[in-house]
Amino acid sequence: IGDNMVGAGCNTLRAASARTFTCRASRRHCAPVVAKVDLQGGPRVIRGKCYVTKDNIDTDQIIPAEYLTLVPSKPDEYEKLGSYALIGLPDDLYPTRYIEVDSMKTEYPIIVGGNNFGCGSSREHAPVALGAAGAKVCVSQSYARIFFRNCVSTGELYPVETDLRLCDELETGDEVEVDMEKDVLTVLSSGKTYSLKALGDAGPVIDAGGIFNYARASGMIKAAK
C-alpha cells in the first residue's frame, strides 16, 4: 500500500524525503513534526483512548454521503464535518458513539480497525472527517489503497498497519500508546505490547501536513508569497 500512496509522484517524494528529512537513523536530526494531527513538534507518539472497529469499515460509515456538501476548506464546516465522523456505523454493532451527541470532538484519538479499513469510494472527506473529529492515528491490519493514500496526501491521519488482529485484542475505551518511532502499541493498563509496521516514506509527508505542504517544504513547488 505504502508504495502507491502518492501516485506518480512517489519516487520524487522518496528522493525529497531522503534529502529533507534525513531521519531514518535518528529523529534527533529531523525536522519537527508539524502534522495536522498536531503533535506539537514532538515525536510520533500518541496516547489516549482507542475506538475499536472491525473489518471493511467503508467510507459511507466513516462519513455518509449526505454530509459531503460540507466544505473542509471552510473552518466552521471542517469542524462540522468532524462532528459526523463514523456516524454511519450501525448502532447495534457499535453502541458507543465515536462522537457523543451534541459534541464536536471525539474522546478517542486512536482508532483500531481490522482488514480493509476505508474501503468504498475515493472521497477525501473520509480521513478529513476523522482528522477534524480529533483522530490522530488509525491502526489496522490493512487499508483500502485510496484511503491510505488520502490519509497521506491530506496529512490528517497516520495510517499505521500491523500484522496482528488488534481489533480482537482491544476494546473501545482501552488506554493505549502508539509509538511510531519504535513501531509498537502498548496497552497502558497491562504493559502488553504489539508490533506495528513502520510508516516508511508516508511518515514525513504526514509530518509536514500533507502532500502540498511537504512539496513546498522540500522545494518541489514554490511556496505562495
What does this entry look like structurally?
With about 220 residues, this protein is α/β, with parallel strands linked by helices. The protein contains seven helices and seven strands. Strands 4-3-2-1-5-6-7 form a seven-stranded mixed beta sheet. β2 (about 110), α4 (about 125-135) and β3 form a beta-alpha-beta unit. It is globular, with a radius of gyration of 17 Å.
Overview in brief:
By secondary structure, this protein is of the alpha/beta class. The chain has seven helices and seven strands, in the order αβααβαβαββββαα.
Low-pLDDT segments: 1-35
Structural class, judged by helices and strands? alpha/beta
Q: Give, in order, the helices and strands.
A: HEHHEHEHEEEEHH
What spatial order of strands do you see in the largest sheet? Answer: 4-3-2-1-5-6-7
Secondary structure layout:
Elements: H1 10-20, E1 45-52, H2 59-62, H3 75-82, E2 110-112, H4 125-133, E3 137-140, H5 145-154, E4 158-161, E5 175-179, E6 184-187, E7 193-195, H6 202-207, H7 211-217
Parallel strand pairs: 1-2, 2-3, 3-4
Antiparallel strand pairs: 1-5, 5-6, 6-7
Descriptive labels:
disordered N terminus, 24% helix, 7 strands, 7 helices, seven-stranded mixed beta sheet, alpha/beta, 225 residues
